[in-house]
Each structure stands twice: as structure tokens, then as C-alpha cells.
Amino acid sequence: MKEIHHTTVALRWGDMDQIGHVNNTVYFRCFEQARVEWIDLFPEHADHNPAYVVIVHTECSFLKELKAPGVVAIKVFAGDMGRSSLVQHYEMRRTDAPDVLVATGSAKMVWVDPATSRSTSIPDRFKTAL
Known about the structure:
alpha+beta
């Protein structure tokens, strides 16, 4: 798989649950942050296509416990691409332990035409980058 983006996300005290580890929903929020940053790299004005992304499936494998404070590094990889969809894969590691894989995940994104609310071809600005 081809790495297409990477970012870091700071873990906050409020991200922890009553057991004292980072809540499982935060992993998905970190993947979301990386995904949104990647999408923002390709502004609509590049090809004047207003299609937007919806998530039709997402998953996460929780491999190691996380505790705050700390910073996680998220790598984004391009997976299978269809006419209107792209699967992104994610790897999460703490920046202070980069050899330890904390979580993996994926999200299937589908581009939607705002005029019809139906799936549409992936805009050229994304296809070119992939």
C-alpha cells in the first residue's frame, strides 16, 4: 500500500475513560483527523467538483493500550479504489515509541454528488493524487 498522508494528534487527559486509558472512540477520531487533513489537501477549486465524502464502513483493531498525555502518529495508506470509493488504511503509533503499533484501522469513503445525494465518480483532484 502507498502511504498518502501522515499526521500527529495530541492525546488529552479528557480522552481517557474511567479505567484510565484512552477511550476507544478517540482512536476513530484520530483516524478521522488524518482523513480530513488528507481531503483538505485537495480543495474543490482544483477541479470545480463539489462532491463530498461520506464514510460507509470503518473499523479499528486495538492492539495496545493508550494513556494520555502523549502524541500519536497516524499514517494513512491508499487501499482499494472503485469508481466512487476509496478504502483508506491507518496505522497509529505513539511518537515516543514509534516501533510499537498501537492500532490499525480502515475507512471506506464514498464520494457523493450534493445535487443528487447519490454516489459519484471520485473527483479528478483525488484520482490524480492516487
